[in-house]
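Run Cell division cycle 20.1, cofactor of APC complex through structure prediction, thanks.
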Amino acid sequence: MGTVFDNSVEEEDEQRCRGQVAKVEAEEWSWREMKLRAHGTDTQRTIIKEAHLLQLMAPLWRPCSSLPAISLPRSPAIDPRNRSSMADPFRFSSLHASPENDFCFEFLQRWENLDRFIPNRSAMDFDFAHYMLTERGKGKENQSVVRSQSKEAYLKLLAETFNMNRSRILVFKNKPPTPVKLIPDEFYSSVHQSKPSKPLRRIPQTPERTLDAPDIIDDFCLNLMDWGSSNVLALALQNTVYLWDASNGSASELVTVDDENGPVTSVSWAADGQYIAIGLNSSDVQLWDSTANRLLRTLRGGHQSRVGSLDWKNHILTTGGMDGQIINNDVRVHSHIVATFRGHRQEVCGLKWSTSGQQLASGGNDNLLYIWDRSMASMHSRSQWLHRLEDHTAAVKVLAWCPFQRNLLASGGGGSDGCIKFWNTHTSACLNSVDTGSQVCALLWNKNERELLSSHGFMQNQMTLWMYPSMVKIAELTGHTSRVLFMAQSPDGRTVATAAGDETLKFWNAFGTPEVKKAAPKQSILGHFLI
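Sure, done. The structure for Cell division cycle 20.1, cofactor of APC complex is below.
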């Protein structure tokens, strides 16, 4: 350990001293390398070559010519002029004398009791040193002008490598260097740049609006509410279908069926928001034009009992009945039945076409979930299912295709099951299962975020908002006093309507305000009807 420096010695002299010592060391190592190239091993050559890093320091220091030149005695063990006395296997000769060396020895005589300056190996960049030794002179004629930002980064990195910015001495390790950007920000892809995090969304715990829904049928297997693309909500109460216009808050009656056909057991809007299908307890299905309040046609002869589930795929209306049958109806032609799916042994409670229209999911009161492929549908033979899924232990009514991931289906089980399950419908694999602790009555995906909303029955009769895919609860919304049987989402994805056995209809801001998107033009999918 060397003596402590006198505080009167300026830092500039100290740094200049280090540079000259390092230069002497560099010349000595360079001379050794010359001998090793002829007589040394590969490992020895590599070690000596790495030591060339010290040579890069010499040009960075200005020689001081104000001091007289004298000789500095060295100990016999390290004196380069007395190599013959050393037990050195490489048999070095004397070090070539130069004015710089004489100056360095003279300057070091002031600190003859101090230890030699030894570079901190752990802080040295040998990859950079190797590049400077081997590649430095290549291709200079083709180099372009270095940009100022890159030049500053290079100089900073060079200074840190050679300990030029060190303000401390006699330390075991340098402080970690400040990261240097060798590539300007404009050359980085925007994908790798940090994005500001979204502010946390406040989810109101109370409904925005509550309406009466008297005489609503409290039946788990029915589907009595749907929200169309024209922003009109349809709700069936016993024999009557009501329309509520969300744009102005007005309500009107669309149709009241007679007792022979009633009550209404299902409703479903077509994609254009103008036509609506109404399933009846009598097994008939009616098609209505909501703008003209006119019955267009009645589909008969397909089912033997009530039609509790409906879904559209372009001009195809798919119906599911208590008889376990699933029928594809082409509403444009007189002979409307174009395909039949048979698999369920009990009532079909839920039907949903995938976003692509390639697959159909059906859930039944027999605790079964089927995945059907459109190409396998046939009018003359029994269509074979693509997948038959038996994991649920209660009726499967709730089906929801993921809007942002293809072939991902969420399903919910009845009271004795209470699970939300996620399926890869391409492989039939169950990706996840979450036990909610109560009957799952409805499921809705958030159209703008990776979230899922579920509604439940006894005991809490709540709605639960989940983060997907972690399935962490974000919020729970309570307000109904009976199981929340039906949910529907507004066209913009912001508002959720819920209807329950407590005969109330509530509107919730569960999904927040979405980003404004340009609305796609609406096109009629029905064309003309042959009645």
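The CA atoms of residues 57 and 459 lie 78 Å apart.
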